[in-house]
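Predict the 3D structure for this chain.
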Amino acid sequence: MFGKYLNIVDETYLLNCHDSRHKDIYRLRKSLSNAKREEKIPKLCAKIADSKNKWQINEKFPILYWHAYVEQVKEIDPLVEEDFLKTATSYLDNIGELLFIKNPNGDDIIVLNIQWLCSRVFGPMLATDIFLQYNKKLRMNKTFYSRSDIDEVFSEFADTELLLNLLKIFELVFEADNSPSVPGSDVQFIAPALLVENMPESQWRKDSSKQIYFGRQNPMSR
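Done. Predicted structure below.
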């Protein structure tokens, strides 16, 4: 039915998604990598794909915000227009070379190393105890996480200060209302995806700038 429209691989993969080192995951990665090499991509996209690893100035934060990304690409093609670059970047996002994240409140975000984001950020933050490959991860069953908690988990593989800003943009963490205002004090954060108890009522206050809320809400306070 779909052979005319899709490049179907004539292999079967038995995947254990709890084990990133499973032998069939390696086979699948190799198959996808071979398919990518065979695909012809636009000239500018190919140049960006070849150059993006060189742009990872901070290995613990392989992220470029849009203005910095444009500057890097203009070293490849000084005449590139931003509208065309957005189209090219969306194409690279579609084929898995990078992540192009639209940020309505500021600069768009380019994730140059997708594996870093998944294995070093999302994994330790959201993984349950089933995922044994993460020696350090944020503990569940907590309402508040301190900066020290986050630093302990991520500091080895990520620039914590920059990462916290990114997690706020992704709305994976929110600064708690009870955070101390004294400079140098340990700020408290809420990670809605890890909440087991109801969200503290003060966090559910109506805010005209944001009408969408995340996490659990006490039904009696609605």
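Residues 217-222 have pLDDT under 50 and may be disordered.
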